[in-house]
Specification:
16% of the residues lie in helices and 32% in strands. By secondary structure, the chain is an alpha+beta fold. It has one domain. A hairpin with a 2-residue loop joins strand 7 and strand 8. The longest helix has 13 residues. It is globular. It starts with 17 loop residues before the first strand and ends with a strand.
Length: 152
Amino acid sequence: MYGINPQTDGGNDTFPVAEAYFDRTHGARPFVITSATDIMRLIENLAHSANNSIASIYIKGRLNRAGVPDHELQLAVKVHPGDTGGLRYTGEDGVFLTCGGNSAGGVEVYQFMGNEREFPRNFELPLKEIRTAVNEFLESGGDRPASVQWTT
């Protein structure tokens, strides 16, 4: 599946509970992530949805003093062409996008709950690297992954 194997691609198989939102029906019932297998299922869902190629992921219970999440990882997946994706991390130290190798410029359009979202083309990485970074995000309890390069 997209060059990713949950048995061999690093990371443990259980994480703090995370919740992903990528469909309007997820308000009361988000997609729950507790393992590397769940990450694979999330990528599969995003890869096969015409209206939802981005998911917002939060560690359940990690809140700031105002009672809202102090972090967000947006996972964007584009299967054709190239099996690529990108990440957008928001935390107390700012907003960051992954920095991939594509120097062609321009933007790529992804879908978040049926709405278009543009990202710079150079934020895309192979899905295997994206999956590793999502593992790291979950294992750390919601910190910005260090396994990928970021830009502001």
